[in-house]
Amino acid sequence: MMTLEGLLGQVEGVAAEDVRRWIAARYVRPGGAPEAWVFGEMDVARVRLIVELRDVMEISEPALPTVLSLLDQVYDLRRRMRRLNEGFARLPAEMRAELARFMME
Amino acid sequence: MAEDLYKILGVEKGASAEELRTAYRGLAKKHHPDLNPGNKAAEERFKKVASAYELLSDAETRKQYDAGEIDESGAMKGPPPGYRAYAEAPHGARYAHAGEDFSGFEDIFSNLFGERARGGPAPGRDAHYALQAGFLEAVNGATKRLTLPDGQTLDVKIPAGTVTGDVLRLRGKGVGGGDGLIEIAVAEHAFFTREGQNIGLVLPISVREAVLGAKISVPTPRGAVVMNVKAGADTGVKMRLKGKGVPAHGGVAAGDLIVTLAVHVGPADAALEGFLKENQAVADFDPRAGMVP
Questions:
Q1: Phi, psi (rounded to 5 degrees) for B197
Q2: For an interface test with B, which of A56, A78, A84, A88 has the most B Cβ atoms less than 10 Å from its Cβ?
């Protein structure tokens, strides 16, 4: 957990204004109150990701929401698929075998 | 056997800084772990590429590397932990695009989540409702009628001392035997504020009441009471009305009403103006004496 200053110290190549703009656009959603934000490790990693998308992968700021939205959807699906996989693991063996056959078709 | 850093980036040994950057960006676009979730090979590749670029993009370390003074291991620090580690974890749902629940899956698993796909939660599930309570209803307790999405009405007993975020569980009032969970949001009040068990009130008094003292009527969460204001009272003076805050509930003692006086001067008055101009003691009083930054 850290403040905006703490975050700026951890992520290279990002200005306070960038972070403020991304929070306003809801690309980053820290806890706490406006200007008294509390950034968790995931928020820091997300800011770092956005900086990489912008500076390394040359995704322009107007295109960021599209890319972030697709990324979030992929991660969302992967989390759900993992959950589903856990659900399948609880099924009786013959049902799992039937499912495996179907998936291999 | 360690790989040559230039080979990792796919450039000639004499490549310019610009060529290095272009090569790095091209490879990052292809192998970035967040663009290749679950692809271990891409992740490893990206780590190597990022490390190689980190070493070669610094003119000093590049010179040392070219001269054979440091080897690839000098570049093996690697990037900081990626976003993916968080996004893949269960709490990664914080940034889920489609929002909570299975809204993003209903179309695919229509027969598995058939009940939900037909418009209602699956059988035996808790149902979540939100209910707005008035400030005084939450302080004193009240019964409110909640209309469910199916048109059924439910009388909800809000206990005294409820605060925003409290969740009331109604057994069996969910769907198919599940529970109904009612999250309460408490509205603000025009002049009362909540401070735990105590209630705060900024009470306006007139100049006359402040200077001469008075018996005044004070609103409380449960009707008005008469309170004695001593002569010479002033803005900011706090008075405590015992037991007039949140009533006792569930083993918690009753809170108090904390009244903070605020002197209001009122409409312009020629006689008062004249008196204030004449009276030297009043003119000499400096409420800001001692206010040194």
A1: -80, -20
A2: A56
* A30 to chain B: closest CA residue: B94
Domain that holds residue B66: 5-87
The DSSP letter of residue B65 is H
Tally the residues of chain A: 105
Q: What is the ipTM of this complex?
A: 0.79
Q: In 3D, which of B254, B158, B263, B175 has the Cα closest to residue B212?
A: B263
Question: What is the 3 state secondary structure string of A1-35?
Answer: CECHHHHHHHCCCCCHHHHHHHHHCCCCCCEEECC
User: Cα dist. A63→A28, A43, A60 in Å?
Assistant: 15, 20, 5
Residue B96 domain flag:
no
Q: How confident is the model at residue B92 (pLDDT cuts 50, 70, 90)?
A: confident
pLDDT-derived band of residue B106, with 50, 70 and 90 as boundaries?
Answer: low
Distance CA A83, CA B142 (A): 41
Tokens, residue B47? 């780590």
Please give the model's pTM, rounded to 2 decimal places: 0.49
Contact A57 B28 (CB under 8 A): yes
- Closest by CA to A78, choosing from B110, B34, B112, B117, is B34
Residue B99 is predicted with a pLDDT of 46
Cβ density class A1-30: b for 16+ within 10 Å, e for less: ebebeebbebbeebeeebbeebbeeebbeb
Domain locations in chain A?
1-58, 63-105
Helix (H, G, I), strand (E, B) or coil at B98: coil
Q: B37 to chain A: which residues are within 8 Å by CB?
A: 74-75, 78
**CA-to-CA separations, A70 to A30, A65, A67, B192, in angstroms, rounded:** 20, 8, 5, 47
**Are residues B134 and B209 part of one domain?**
no
